[in-house]
Amino acid sequence: MIKWLAGPADYLPVWQEMQAYTNQRGADTPDEIWLCEHAPVYTLGQAGLPEHVLNPGNIPIVHCDRGGQVTYHGPGQVMAYALFDLRRVDMYVKEYVNLLEGAVIDTLAQHGIGGACRKPGAPGVYVPDPEGGELAKIAALGIKIRNGRAYHGVSLNVAMDLSPFLGINPCGYEGLRTVDMAACGVRRAPADVGDALAQNLAAAWRRARNPA
Questions:
Q1: Which residues are catalytic?
Q2: In 3D, which of 172, 146, 137 has the Cα closest to residue 45?
Q3: Residues with Cβ < 8 Å from 144, sequence gap 6 or more?
């Protein structure tokens, strides 16, 4: 099931709902994809280092239980929470990360952004920097696996205020450039991009559950 959460959604209650959903899951509990735009927030992963938060200003910081370091969520960014039972398909974490990144790459390609790619050892999706130079990050990934069930997910920058990323070392990388689809010359409504991303996630998950 795919559903949009009312927004901009506060981060903390959504995280708590994800935990509750995962904790009460049984063998037959359906997998779901939750989509939203968040109210401005910095999230720090389970092993996140506070020194990567440079200048948060008045943006709240939530220390959560996903993997990864610090990132920013806010309006104009689509957050896709994938609540998938990996045990049903005997999927390992590396394969699952690859699935999430692949869905983002497919979504960007559908919207005319080519050259999106992965970086070894640095989860997420990157695109050629529209201002030249090295690759810039357009999607961040952070997941939690509990008893073989995944929650958290992936965020894709669509058309947002990117300045809060200057207040952190994004994902723990000093000076990492962060861009959105608008900076790459593609302007779309976050809802449209979110719908496409969810469909690509769902299709990838169906293929994993029913390999040819």
A1: 171
A2: 172
A3: 46, 65, 66, 67, 150, 151, 152
Q: Are 54 and 152 in contact (CB under 8 A)?
A: no
Residue 212's pLDDT band, with cuts at 50, 70 and 90, is: low
Q: What are the beta bridge partners of residue 35?
A: 4, 80
Question: Each residue of 143-180: pLDDT tens digit?
Answer: 999 999 999 999 999 999 999 999 999 988 888 899 99
Distance CA 209, CA 212 (A): 10
Q: Which two tokens stand for residue 190?
A: 């976050």
- Partners of residue 193 on adjacent β-strands: none
Q: Which CATH number fits domain 2-209: 3.30.930.10, 3.30.1340.30, 1.20.81.30, 3.30.70.920?
A: 3.30.930.10
Read off the DSSP letter of residue 39.
P
Average confidence (pLDDT) over 106-111: 98
